[in-house]
C-alpha cells in the first residue's frame, strides 16, 4: 500500500509553479488508494522568514489554498511540519550518517550561494530535514516538481547509508513528477523557472487588475503580429498551454505560426490568458477567501491533521532509535 507524502514551504503566497508542479498532483493523488500525508514546511521556511507574524499568516494562507483546491482532510493528513517534532530528531540521526560532500552537491544550495545569500547552517542541512520529512512516514511516493527531484535522490542516499549501518529501518521513496514536462517545471514571467526567489512568480489566485499587471510582465519582443513566429519560442504560449483546451491552443498556435492579417498580437494573447486564468481559479478563489476569514478554524484543521501523522512518525522514530542503540 503506497504512502504519498509531500511538502511546501510557507515562504510567501503559492504560485502557478507550486500549483501545476505540486498542489494539483497532491489533490489528484487522493483518488489513488494509499495513505496520504501533505504538510506545510514551516521549519524549512525559517531558513528565509524571520518574522513570527508573517510565518503564521503564510501558514494559514497555504492551508486555505490547499483546502480551497480540494485537499480533503477526511482522506489525507494535512498538517504543519512543526506539529510533528519527531522529524527534527530523525534529521539528527540522518545527519550523523551523511557526508558533507552529499550536501555540498545540492543544486538549490549552490544556486542560493551563487545568488549571494550568506548561508546559515540550517540552509546547508536543509536536505537532511527534508529527508527526515519523507522517511518519518515510510513514504513511498513523493509528488514534487522537477527542482525537488535531487532532494528526493539525496533522501534515498541517506536512507541507504543509515540502513547499511544499522539495518532496514527506512523505506526507500521515489519522486513522482507531473506527467507533462511543462508542469514539472513551470516557467516564470521571464521564461526562467518560476520561483519566489527570482521574483518572476504569479500568485495562483491573482485576479483583476493585479493579474493583468503581472501578465503584462511576461517577456515578449517587438516583432509585429503579422510576422510569422514559432509559437514554441514564446513564453506567452507556454502560459496559455497551462490553461487552454487543446483545440483553442492549436488554433492560436496556427495563427501565430502563419502570421499575416489574422495573427494575434501579444496584447491580444495576454488578454485571453488573464481571462482564462481568472476563470480557472474562480471557484477555489472564492472558497479560499471564505476560509481565510476564519483563521482559528484553519489552525484547528491543521492540528487535527497532525494527529495521524504524528502517530506514524513516533513509530518510525522508535524503530530508528532502537536500531542505532539509543534505546
Ligand atoms: P517549495 O515550497 O519550493 O515548492 C513546493 C512544490 O512546488 C514545486 N515547484 C514547482 N513545480 C513546477 N514548476 C515550478 N516553477 C515550481 N516551483 C516550485 C516544487 O518542486 C515543490 O514540489 N523543499 C521543498 C519543501 C519540502 C518537501 C519536503 C517537499 C520540505 N520537505 C518533503 C517534498 C517532501 C520546497 O522548498 O518546496
UniProtKB/TrEMBL annotation:
ATP binds at residues 9-11, 17-18, 145-147, 186, 193-197. This is Tryptophan--tRNA ligase. CDD domains: TrpRS_core. GO terms for cellular component: cytosol. Homodimer. It comes from Saltatorellus ferox. It catalyses: tRNA(Trp) + L-tryptophan + ATP = L-tryptophyl-tRNA(Trp) + AMP + diphosphate + H(+). Catalyzes the attachment of tryptophan to tRNA(Trp). It is an enzyme of class 6 (ligase). The lineage of its organism: Bacteria, Pseudomonadati, Planctomycetota, Planctomycetia, Planctomycetia incertae sedis. Its main location: cytoplasm. One of its GO terms (molecular function) is ATP binding. Its EC number is 6.1.1.2.
Amino acid at each position: 500500500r503506497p504512502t504519498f507524502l509531500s511538502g511546501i514551504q510557507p515562504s510567501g503566497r503559492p504560485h502557478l509553479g507550486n500549483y501545476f508542479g505540486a498542489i494539483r498532483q497532491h489533490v489528484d493523488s487522493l483518488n489513488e488508494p494509499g495513505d496520504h500525508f501533505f504538510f506545510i514546511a514551516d521549519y524549512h521556511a525559517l531558513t528565509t522568514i524571520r518574522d513570527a507574524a508573517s510565518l503564521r499568516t503564510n501558514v494559514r494562507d497555504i492551508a486555505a489554498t490547499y483546502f480551497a483546491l480540494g485537499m480533503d482532510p477526511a482522506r489525507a493528513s494535512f498538517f504543519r511540519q512543526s506539529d510533528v517534532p519527531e522529524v527534527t530528531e530523525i534529521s539528527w540521526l540522518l545527519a550523523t550518517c551523511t557526508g558533507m560532500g552529499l550536501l555540498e552537491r545540492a543544486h538549490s544550495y549552490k544556486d542560493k550561494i551563487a545568488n549571494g545569500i550568506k548561508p546559515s547552517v540550517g540552509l546547508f542541512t536543509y536536505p537532511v530535514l527534508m529527508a527526515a520529512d519523507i522517511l518519518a512516514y515510510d513514504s513511498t511516493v513523493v509528488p514534487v516538481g522537477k527542482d525537488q527531484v535531487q532532494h528526493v535522490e539525496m533522501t534515498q542516499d541517506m536512507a541507504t547509508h543509515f540502513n547499511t549501518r544499522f539495518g532496514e529501518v527506512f523505506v526507500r521513496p521515489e519522486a513522482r513528477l507531473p506527467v507533462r514536462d511543462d508542469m514539472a517545471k513551470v516557467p516564470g514571467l521571464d521564461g526562467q523557472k518560476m520561483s519566489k526567489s527570482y521574483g518572476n512568480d504569479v500568485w495562483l489566485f491573482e485576479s483583476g487588475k493585479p493579474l493583468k499587471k503581472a501578465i503584462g510582465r511576461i517577456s515578449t519582443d517587438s516583432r509585429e503580429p503579422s510576422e510569422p513566429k514559432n509559437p514554441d519560442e514564446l513564453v506567452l504560449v507556454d502560459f496559455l498551454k497551462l490553461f487552454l483546451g487543446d483545440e483553442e491552443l492549436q488554433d492560436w498556435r496556427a495563427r501565430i505560426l502563419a502570421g499575416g492579417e489574422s495573427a494575434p498580437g501579444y496584447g491580444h494573447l495576454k488578454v485571453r490568458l488573464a481571462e482564462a486564468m481568472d476563470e480557472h481559479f474562480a471557484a477555489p478563489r472564492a472558497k479560499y477567501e471564505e476560509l481565510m476569514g476564519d483563521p482559528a478554524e484553519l489552525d484547528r484543521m491543521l492540528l487535527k491533521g497532525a494527529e495521524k501523522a504524528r502517530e506514524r512518525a513516533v513509530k518510525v522514530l522508535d524503530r530508528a532509535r532502537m536500531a542505532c542503540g539509543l534505546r
